[in-house]
Specification:
- With 286 residues, the protein is an alpha/beta fold.
- It has 11 helices and 12 strands.
- The strands form 3 sheets. It has a 6-stranded parallel beta sheet with strand order 6-11-10-9-8-7. A 4-stranded antiparallel beta sheet has the order 3-5-1-12, covered by helices on one side. Strands 2-4 form a two-stranded antiparallel sheet.
- The radius of gyration is 23 Å and the shape is elongated.
- The chain starts with 6 loop residues before the first helix and ends with a strand.
Length: 286
């Protein structure tokens, strides 16, 4: 799925982030920097990366001063080398200093997710598989982190629990079986909702196909175990069922999963294990 970037939600979150960091005020800046002093700042990439989060960084400064803007030299999704000036801004020194850490945290975090996502996407080129994210996101940052996945060329899985039907092992245990869970979901869920179910063996796969699941998640299987499950699904259901691989998939194994013929590969690591990119914000009087 995809979603529109919600600016209202963004600014609401930015306000909370700044409140957490600034508290009752930046006492260091108030003590050291003259009131109304002007300054210039530059965001500089200190390593190669795919940039993401420029709008979020700008929102940090414009929340502190509505006149504050960032002049970006690249766009979200652009690849840059170490030493590249990503963007610059100028204005009141206390605004630049007060927003520096939150802006950097967001820019570094989102660029890390986008950079990692692009690596996964490149490794699956030439196959039918699409890289998708999960709900394994940082609380409070889901909108931004899923946006970063999109910028990296990935797709979004469910945004939240209200977004779609995904029947997992615990649901199956409580419902009394794969078919029973699918039948209950179909009776209750709206006609616009597709039904996805998690399976990990051939018996459950056959049951899911017989119950006419729309999407089947092949969970925690090796590529060697996945391939015959894909072949069986195509034999029994043709292209009417989407197949998703999930569970512990990494950069070393993602190509092998993609070559099994699955349609989707969900990777929790995109958002829970992406390394923050090294970006600096250098300020000088001006």
């Amino acid at each position: 799925m995809t979603f529109a970037f919600d600016e209202g939600a963004l600014y609401s979150q930015i306000g909370a982030f700044l409140s957490e960091d600034l508290g009752r005020g930046d006492i260091t800046t108030q003590s050291v920097v003259a009131r109304n002093a002007q300054a210039r700042g530059r965001f500089i990439a200190k390593e190669a990366m795919t940039v993401c989060g420029l709008e979020a960084a700008e929102a940090v400064f414009s929340t502190l001063d509505t006149q504050q803007q960032i002049e970006a030299f690249v766009s979200d999704g652009d690849d840059v080398e170490a030493g590249k000036v990503i963007a610059r801004t100028s204005g009141f020194a206390d605004v630049l200093l007060g927003g520096e850490r939150v802006a950097l945290n967001l820019l570094q975090r989102l660029s890390g997710i986008t950079t990692l996502t692009r690596q996964y996407v490149k490794l699956t080129e030439g196959t039918r598989a699409r890289i998708v994210d999960t709900r394994k996101t940082t609380p409070g940052l889901r909108m931004l982190e899923k946006y970063a996945v999109q910028i990296g060329g990935g797709r979004n899985h469910r945004f939240g629990l209200d977004d779609g039907v995904l029947i997992k092992d615990n649901h199956i245990a409580l419902a009394g079986g794969v078919a029973a869970a699918i039948e209950r979901a179909r009776d209750v869920a709206g006609h616009l909702h597709k039904i996805e179910v998690e399976v990990s063996n051939e018996r459950d796969l056959r049951e899911a196909i017989s119950a006419k699941a729309d999407i089947i998640m092949l969970d925690n299987l090796t590529p060697e175990e996945t391939r015959p499950m894909v072949e069986l699904t195509r034999e029994l259901a043709g292209e009417n069922v989407l197949l998703e691989s999930s569970g512990g998939i990494n950069l070393e194994t993602v190509r092998a999963y993609a070559e099994t013929g699955v349609d989707l590969i969900s990777v929790g690591a995109l958002t829970h294990s992406a390394r923050a990119m090294d970006i600096s914000f250098k300020i000088q009087a001006g």
